[in-house]
Recover the amino acids of this structure.
């Protein structure tokens, strides 16, 4: 009986596999433990064989090492588009590009950007999603369906306001940096950095199809979500200055 051929990988998934193999090979080369080196090398070889990765892909490091891809599982159900919207707003504020795809297990978002920014987006999304999920759980409607509609609207309102707040903070930080610089250097650096990320995302993903717009939400639930976003813990100091996550009164 012949082996079942592997399913084709999307460009983004294949790039993530290539990065995983590279990391395993790097670990194998760095460790002084012979057993660990063998384990890392064997895992890398298994990935290459299973997914039929071309050896030239592993050796090619023409793209800058500070750029990478990350996948985040967003789940399924009535709130998945709201979660994706929250993740997209966070990603946009950190010059990280995002696409998503549906799988039998749920939606998966793929992020492309500078590795330092990807780490912050992951951390911020995990924190904000946990906070909004806790607040959504407190909402109750007259029926299960009305509860779901209220929670969905709340999530979109929360996400929308978080995006606005992060965009405002980013604009203020970049404006202050430009004023203190006294030249166009800051703007030029930011444009070049964003252009590099855009080019990397385009090469990684290829052609991307636009998603349909989400359906309308309840106005009162949306407004409550907006109000809740004003009070959450969000790391504003990380924007622009690329420092660390801190607490901000929202």
């Amino acid at each position: 009986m012949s082996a079942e051929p592997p399913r084709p990988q999307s460009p983004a998934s294949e790039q993530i596999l290539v990065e995983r193999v590279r990391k395993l090979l790097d670990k194998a080369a760095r460790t002084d433990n012979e057993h660990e080196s063998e384990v890392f090398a064997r895992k890398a070889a298994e990935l290459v064989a299973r997914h039929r990765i071309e050896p030239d892909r592993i050796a090619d490091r023409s793209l800058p090492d500070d750029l990478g891809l990350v996948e985040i599982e967003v789940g399924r159900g009535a709130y998945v588009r709201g979660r994706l919207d929250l993740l997209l707003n966070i990603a946009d504020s950190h010059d990280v590009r995002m696409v998503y795809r549906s799988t039998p297990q749920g939606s998966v978002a793929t992020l492309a950007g500078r590795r330092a920014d990807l780490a912050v987006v992951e951390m911020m999304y995990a924190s904000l999603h946990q906070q909004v999920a806790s607040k959504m759980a407190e909402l109750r409607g007259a029926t299960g369906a009305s509860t779901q509609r209220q929670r969905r609207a709340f999530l979109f309102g929360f996400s929308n306001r978080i995006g606005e707040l992060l965009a405002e903070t980013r604009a203020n930080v970049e404006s202050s940096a430009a004023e203190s610089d006294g030249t166009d250097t800051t703007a030029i650096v930011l444009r070049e950095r964003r252009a590099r990320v855009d080019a990397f995302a385009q090469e990684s993903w290829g052609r991307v199809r636009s998603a349909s717009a989400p359906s309308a939400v309840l106005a009162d639930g949306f407004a409550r979500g907006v109000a809740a976003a004003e009070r959450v813990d969000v790391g504003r100091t990380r924007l622009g200055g690329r420092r660390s996550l801190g607490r901000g009164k929202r």
Summary: Residues 11-59 form one domain. Residues 1 and 246 are 58 Å apart (CA to CA).
